[in-house]
Specification:
Layout (H helix, E strand, L loop, with lengths): L4 H30 L3 H22 L10 H31 L4 E4 L2 E4 H12 L5 E6 L2 E4 L7 E4 L6 H15 L2 E6 L5 H4 L4 E4 L8 E2 L1 H4 L3 H11 L8 H21 L5 H8 L3 H11 L12 H13 L2 H8 L6 E2 L1 H6 L5 E5 L5 H20 L9 E5 L9 H9 L5 E7 L2 H8 L1 H9 L3 E4 L8 H8 L2 E11 L5 E11 L3 H5 L10 E7 L4 E7 L27 H7 L1
Parallel strand pairs: 2-17, 5-12, 5-13, 6-10, 6-11, 7-10, 8-9, 11-12
Antiparallel strand pairs: 1-14, 3-4, 13-16, 14-15, 16-17
């Protein structure tokens, strides 16, 4: 069983107290024998046992013994002090210092630092940088420019990941920065939804409706939308996915050309119209895709199957949002400061809809932001907890690599780096992960290779150590060996203490360019107040169709 920091210190204190008692008794008895004050000490000891202790326990006051020799009085005061000092040194030298010692001599590369060493090292290296920005830890305020290097927080369920994201998010919202939050479970809605927040949710009664006609008004924006909502699978499916994207792009192109005001109802009606109607639409508005949809054609049927399997949620959105009065535009949100916080709510019971909607809105936001002039002083935050729930999108790579000059910062959370690898593939995932300059690794599980991946991401260092070998003659020889080894081994990540409200959270922090990995301890932040309900279910009124009765039809005839 792993010992917590508190239990280790309690053990150290118990050992020091035991040594102090032993040294004090030995020293006192030695002193009274040498100084020939045994009879006086014997009377004092007898008085303590027969009068002092019973009186204190029974009558709750201390009786007076009288005068003792000055020599014995000084000895009884100084001996415990010296004994405690010697005991503390022994505990530090043989228990604390030796446990921290390593057989490895550091040669090159980043080092692992913790406690005050980590904080002092951090403050020393960043003190010459610009003004103070987000606090990574209460004692570790980041310079403003380092916010633009993006944040990745990964750890298993219950590792404290969401608590740290809330801690950072609270600072961002207090500053008044524009913030897009993906909230899959409603936990951010209940803490941060107020009058300065816009909520986008298909199933929440407080939600605004995304007015896509205001934001998707060109072929370029249509391409971003289609790439986000139609996800690629294996390589054999790429033709069908790209064909379905072309068809969806053609539908949107026609809607844009026909009217400036169109919405989800019009998109759903045209996209799921008959083969004849859709073919005519594409022939008129987007001839490049007209050959993909033909009546009674096997290729067309396969493309329609992809659309039907990945985009059925468009019909659900069009139905649930058709009577919503509040309209929302990403373009207007970026240009106005009235409501700087945007929460896009997901639903664990509707994963396809949730993933498509957040990915589409993030992609369109990325396109709008990257088309603006450079502005490194502005801050636009993308807070994407559970990054593995998003669809595969090239917009994520674009915003991480190109968003710096526009003031875009990303805080992404995931339970495992393998989630990113399974969505994007090893090479593309490696590119994405390399674009996060501020990385926090929390407790991870022992199986699945997550801890190994996290250990590799924190880097390696070069060390030197002495090896001992014995030859055939029994002679012992020593030699120096050099080796590159992990700064933080996988076992250290796996065996981090389980976070609790009493203990807090332990994790490892890598900040690009500081040539160190910090082991940091955070408290569990509990100063978050619930300000709203996580969700207020939308009341869906059933659609009724009025039918004429038989008598009415007879009269009409």
């Amino acid at each position: 069983m792993l010992l917590t920091r508190q239990s280790k210190w309690l053990q150290h204190c118990a050992v020091a107290l035991a040594l102090t008692t032993i040294f004090s008794l030995v020293s006192v008895f030695t002193f009274v024998l040498v100084s020939k004050t045994w009879s006086e000490f014997n009377d004092l000891l007898l008085w303590c046992l027969t009068e002092l202790l019973p009186t204190v326990f029974l009558y709750q006051y201390f009786p007076s013994y009288g005068e003792i020799s000055k020599q014995l009085e000084i000895a009884l005061k100084l001996i415990p002090v010296f004994s405690l000092s010697i005991s503390s040194f022994i505990v530090w030298f043989f228990r604390i210092r030796r446990n921290k010692a390593s057989i490895y001599h550091h040669l090159d590369g980043p080092q692992l630092l913790d406690g005050k060493k980590a904080i002092n090292h951090f403050k020393k290296l960043v003190k010459c940088e610009d003004s103070t920005g987000l606090k990574l830890h209460n004692n570790m305020p980041l310079p403003m420019l380092r916010e633009l290097q993006n944040f990745l927080i990964h750890g298993m369920q219950g590792s404290g990941k969401s608590n740290l994201i809330k801690y950072h998010l609270q600072q961002i919202i207090i500053r008044g920065d524009k913030t897009l939050i993906y909230d899959i479970k409603g936990e951010y809605t209940e803490l941060f939804y107020d009058e300065r927040t816009t909520l986008i949710s298909v199933y929440d009664a407080r939600s605004a409706v995304w007015n896509i006609s205001q934001d998707i008004n060109s072929l370029a924006m249509a391409e971003l939308f289609t790439e986000a909502v139609l996800t690629e699978g294996s390589g054999n499916e790429s033709f069908w996915i790209n064909s379905a994207r072309a068809v969806l792009k053609g539908v949107i192109a026609g809607l844009v050309k026909r009217s400036k005001k169109w919405g989800w109802l019009e998109l759903n009606r045209v996209l799921f119209s008959s083969d004849e109607e859709l073919h005519q639409w594409l022939s008129k508005y987007y001839v490049q895709a007209s050959g993909l949809i033909k009546p009674e054609d096997k290729t067309s049927a396969s493309i329609r199957a992809v659309i039907a399997s990945q985009l059925p949620w468009i019909g659900e959105v069009s139905e649930l949002w058709k009577n919503t009065e509040i309209s929302f535009s990403l373009k207007q949100w970026l240009n106005n400061n009235d409501k700087p916080t945007l929460i896009i709510q997901g639903d664990l019971n509707a994963p396809t809809l949730s993933s498509a909607l957040i990915t589409a809105m993030m992609s369109v936001t990325t396109g709008l932001v990257l088309s603006r002039p450079d502005n490194g002083n502005e801050r636009i935050w993308l807070v994407l907890d559970e990054l593995g729930n998003l669809n595969k999108s090239q917009s994520l790579t674009r915003v991480l690599s190109l968003g710096r000059s526009k003031g875009v910062c990303t805080i992404a959370g995931t339970q495992s780096l393998s989630q990113i690898q399974s969505i994007y593939g090893d090479k593309e995932a490696e590119t994405i992960l390399s674009l996060f300059g501020n990385v926090i690794a929390l407790k991870l599980g022992p199986s699945g290779g997550s801890a190994e991946s996290a250990s590799q991401s924190l880097g390696k260092r070069r060390v030197e150590y002495i090896t001992k070998s014995r030859n055939e003659k029994g002679e012992i020889t020593h030699s120096l060996q050099q080796e590159s080894m992990a700064i933080v081994p996988p076992e250290a990540i796996i065996h981090l203490p389980q976070p609790t409200k009493k203990y807090g959270v332990d994790g490892y922090v890598l900040l690009s360019g500081l040539n160190a990995v910090y082991k940091v301890h955070w408290p569990i932040y509990t100063n978050f107040k619930k300000v709203a309900e996580a969700r207020i279910e939308k009341i869906i009124k059933p659609t009724t169709i009025k039918k004429k009765n038989r008598l009415s039809r007879k009269k009409a005839s």
